[in-house]
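Before the break, one more example. Copy the sequence into your notebook; we will annotate it together after we see the structure.
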Amino acid sequence: MNRITSVVLSAAVLLLPSQFARAADTPGVTATEIKLGQTMPYSGPASSFSAAGKGNVAYMQMINDQGGVNGRKINLISRDDSYSPPKAVEQTRKLVEEDEVLAIFESLGTPVILATAKYLNSRGVPQILSSLGNSIPANIKEYPWTTLWSMPFRTESLILANYVLRNKPDAKIGILYQNDEFGKNYQRFFKEGLGDKTSLIVAEVGYDITSPTIDSQIAQLKSSGADTVVIATTPKFGAQALRKMYELGWNPLKLLISASSSIPAAIKPAGLEASQGVISVQYMMAPDDKANADLPAMKDYKAFMKKYLPNENPDDFGFMAGYITGSFMIDILKKCGNDLSRENVMKYAQDFPEVQHPLLRPGVKYNSTATDHIPFHMGEISKIDGERWAGTGEIVRDDVAPGK
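Here is what the structure looks like once it is written out:
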């Protein structure tokens, strides 16, 4: 399939445990090439998330056009896993054992990452900037070779629960969740965020990702008397939920998780009239917000999209995520210099202590250190206003007490 690479930031170098001593061999590295691998849901029920992979591939092409990294071109092998854990395991094994990649870079999806993390860690293969919300792989003792990207389910859920407690303390809450690890984690952590106020929940309704629609689930939530709904879904079902609520003439407070917050993939398909006032927690700048249009970093991103992905929508958060993670990956490789052992790659993958990337929302920082692999501890409360996510300027951390 396609290939890919990335560039950007830096921070103070952290010392790593003894298991990260320099290795003699360097799989995936030659005098002219650095080989990376990833799997992405290019097909299947979560295919809208594949924008991140396409962004990664295009970013690496840009880097190669600029001469590569320290004289080496990036060969990113990006394979389809259909959002299926067994297929992801099969493809990941091929990447490691047949293609002999140096590292796995930003594979995507909670079930996929959970299915492949133990295998990669057992073989000492860096699993870098993994895009999932489950923070289990952030357990450094169990997964020392894994770093994460994207806001954890727990961080986001605690922030949303806190928002409800502060702004609608007598809410009657319904939770719509995907009936797998992805949705159940939001469900569980939102309850944690409510603390002793879980009695505010009046309905919890799940759906299967293979379902054609969720009309019956929305009708069930409406009949429960809920006046506040947490929408813990992928973009397709997020759009369906917003649209069905609108068609039913039902207008509860709607809390939409960031994974489903893409304007082109969820909000516009639902209909702008059905999406006004929806609340979410955002950590990346909105690429469609005119207020960001003149920022140098946004101009660079839009120019990149125009040149390398001219037929894709630059306002899709997935492409921007691929662009940002690409920049982090390239920064890691640049800092490795000529020591491209897997151990040295992991050393620098843990060299981002709360770094402010220019395309993250002001005040929101990415984190990856030798002692903390939780990528985000904060986010900005945002609301759909017209055709954009309007930031409120309220940055909330995940360690805030319920209702405070």
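The first strand starts at residue 33 and ends at 40. The first helix runs from residue 51 to 65. Try to locate both features in your own notes.
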